[in-house]
């Protein structure tokens, strides 16, 4: 694996690990799954395949961010707009 791809893979792993702290099923569950997925693909040598896997990981990262933003939005909406439903 080229050094640039190695750096990208490590950066992706660290970012996903950071995002996994708030995972709904728990950080330990997420960490185990993340480690297993990365270990499963550790023997991949083809740079094109590695780039493909990095793109897939970045997609998962964006999906996690969207999940967290949606959860925060729902909490805020429930907190501030729950009174309007009671008056109707």
UniProtKB/TrEMBL annotation:
Q: Which InterPro entries match?
A: Complex1_LYR_dom, Complex1_LYR_ETFRF1_LYRM5, ETFRF1
Q: Name one GO biological process term.
A: respiratory electron transport chain
A GO cellular component annotation here is: mitochondrion
Q: Which domain of life is it from?
A: Eukaryota
Q: Which Pfam families match?
A: Complex1_LYR
Domain Complex 1 LYR protein, residue spans: 8-61
Q: Member of which family?
A: Belongs to the complex I LYR family.
Question: What's the protein name?
Answer: Complex 1 LYR protein domain-containing protein
Give the taxonomic lineage as stored in the record.
Eukaryota, Metazoa, Chordata, Craniata, Vertebrata
């Amino acid at each position: 694996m080229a050094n640039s791809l190695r750096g990208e893979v490590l950066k992706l792993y660290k970012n996903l690990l950071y995002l996994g702290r708030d995972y709904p099923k728990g950080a330990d569950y997420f960490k185990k799954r993340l480690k297993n997925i990365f270990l499963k693909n550790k023997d991949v040598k083809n740079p094109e395949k590695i780039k493909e896997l990095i793109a897939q990981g970045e997609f998962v990262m964006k999906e996690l961010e969207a999940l967290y933003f949606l959860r925060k939005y729902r909490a805020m909406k429930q907190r501030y707009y729950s009174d309007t439903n009671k008056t109707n």
